[in-house]
Amino acid sequence: xxxxxxxxxxxxxxxxxxxxxxxxxxxxxxxxxxxxxxxxxxxxxxxxxxxxxxxxxxxxxxxxxxxxxxxxxxxxxxxxxxxxxxxxxxxxxxxxxxxxxxxxxxxxxxxxxxxxxxxxxxxxxxxxxxxxxxxxxxxxxxxxxxxxxxxxxxxxxxxxxxxxxxxxxxxxxxxxxxxxxxxxxxxxxxxxxxxxxxxxxxxxxxx
Length: 207
Description:
By secondary structure, this protein is α/β, with parallel strands linked by helices. It folds into two domains: 3-14 and 83-206, Rossmann fold; 16-82, Orthogonal Bundle (DNA polymerase, domain 1), CATH 1.10.150.240. It contains eleven helices and six strands. The protein has helices at 16-28, 36-43, 48-58, 67-82, 89-95, 108-117, 121-124, 131-134, 142-150, 165-173, 199-206, and strands at 3-6, 100-104, 128-130, 158-162, 177-181, 194-196. It has a six-stranded parallel sheet, sandwiched between helices. Helix 10 (165-173) links the parallel strand 4 and strand 5 (177-181). The relative contact order is 0.17. The model has no long low-confidence stretch (mean pLDDT 96).
């Protein structure tokens, strides 16, 4: 392989619960009861607008224009105080001898904050790619193909490290091999090329 493309939320950083906790808090302000764990299970890796459209339908409501910016502020606050890199990520990045980058469905500002507060930013420099920059989101393969092009790498020579099923779909659509980071799963998912529970397993595979 000539390039490793990392997802950010849930893969490099332990952010999925925090993002869904912010969503739970935002919904509570509208009088809607929800559970962050359940939201995480339902919408992991899904584009925010798709998630909100689904929730509006489920609760037969329409969210105010302030919903997304208020939600983003809650996420930013939670990241600042609670976000951590996933176990083994720093050791993995320090050991890599082939190029790598991050490609995420999140806004660039959110990706950059996540990498900064967890101490991962120096590993990536400017090799950060956001779906919001090219207007295409997972499960579409566009963000991974965009990252490969910017990194001057043949998609067939790329590995994608992902924690969500929509991310695996995007990697497969880009004709890239995927590594499914699933710390809590024992059974291999059919969409996964390779499945790992800890980032140290990826170090072993690459070596």
